[in-house]
Amino acid sequence: MKRTGFAILTLLSLGVAGYALVVYGFLPLGAALHPEMRATYESQRFGIYAHVFAASFALLLGPFQFSSRLRARHPDWHRWSGRLYLGFGVLLGGLAGLYMAFHAWGGPVARLGFGGLALAWLYTGWRAYRSIRARETAAHRRWMVRNFALAFGAVTLRLWLPGSLFAGAPFEIAYPLVAWLCWVPNLVVAELVFNRRPHG
């Protein structure tokens, strides 16, 4: 990944993680949400907090897993941060996200979209773990690219949703669509751009 692209990815990831930590750590639950969604969040406090904080942790660590310089200079840090990323960020965040998908506002389309994201995130994390345990480094990196593309859905959701509303789409139509748009294109880009050639 080129430096400019890596810098943008890192800034967006850290920015959204920081935003989530501030909003959910210091403001009343649901304060920054659409009014119709607040009741759901209030009734599922444990699930939403577990998902938000674990997923934010994954966003904070994720970009640095792809730094070849950091891997070369600090391989132990890479291994331990990778374990934390997968074991806490992806596992807890994915399970909590899957649970919350059943309660997602926006009807069946939104629930299926967010449920698919959670399952794909858990599956790619498991494959990344299995491949590195088998010392299949190239496969591990491909699965990690897919996994972080899914984690980055937290960022693209916050780009798609206001963009859709600004374009004039009603919230009740935009939100279920964004439940899919926030992650399916990310996987396509991951395959076409990052997994089509060997990593350096």
Give a topology summary:
Layout: H1 3-26, H2 35-43, H3 45-61, H4 68-73, H5 75-101, H6 107-133, H7 137-151, H8 153-166, H9 171-181, H10 184-194
Helix pairs in contact: 1-3, 3-5, 5-6, 6-7, 6-9, 7-10, 8-9
SS-derived structural category: mainly alpha
What is the averaged pLDDT score? 91
* Radius of gyration using CA atoms only: 17 Å
Any low-confidence stretches, pLDDT <50, length ≥5?
Answer: none
Along the chain, the helix and strand elements come as HHHHHHHHHH
User: Per DSSP, what share of the residues sits in E-state strands of 2 or more residues?
Assistant: under 5%
- What's the N-to-C terminus distance? 9 Å
Offer a concise description of the structure.
With about 200 residues, the protein is mainly alpha-helical.
Written account of the structure:
The protein has helices at 3-26, 35-43, 45-61, 68-73, 75-101, 107-133, 137-151, 153-166, 171-181, 184-194. It has one domain. It has ten helices and no strands. It is mainly α. The chain is 80% helix and 0% strand. The model has no long low-confidence stretch (mean pLDDT 91).
Defining key terms:
single chain; 200 residues; mainly alpha; 10 helices; globular
